[in-house]
Amino acid sequence: MSPQYWHLRTEHELEMFNAHVVKLQLEGKAPRIQFVEKRTLNQNDMSFAIYKQVSVQISDQSVNDIRAECKLTIGVGLLRADDEQFMAFYDAGLKKMTYEQKLLAMVYVPVTSLMRPVVFSEYLDEMIRKYSQQGISLIRPREEP
């Protein structure tokens, strides 16, 4: 059976979902329910705004350089702590690489896209803290000129 996705925003949608679950149970099927949190567009916008602002102020690093550095130095640790499968993947495949090799791998290895919204919020906070401590001025995306 292919997965079905339900948006439970209204009372009617919730009633339809409950009816579907009851129907499956009456047919002797055990429904499997998975709740999925999606990251907000604002979080994505914020991360890319930070990468861009930092790269402008650190002239020898591109936006992609800053992104890879943040994914490696901040994101990997947060995701390893939150996701056992990612930790096993990282430890088996990337942990023994040199720092430079790991930075290159960050172009191809999903890190931030695997984060739950709450973990991604921590990622943003850590980026802001890291670069603020270095004297880099950051402006919220909607405040940019």
What features would you describe in this structure?
The protein starts with 10 loop residues before the first helix and ends in a 12-residue tail after the last helix. The protein has helices at about 10-25, 40-55, 65-80, 85-95, 100-105, 115-135. The chain is elongated. The protein has two domains: about 1-35; about 40-145, no CATH class. α2 (about 40-55) runs parallel beside α6. The chain is an all-alpha fold and about 140 residues long. It contains six helices and no strands. About 60% of the residues lie in helices and about 0% in strands.
Topology:
Elements: H1 11-26, H2 41-57, H3 63-82, H4 84-93, H5 99-105, H6 117-133
Helix pairs in contact: 2-3, 2-6, 3-4, 3-5, 3-6
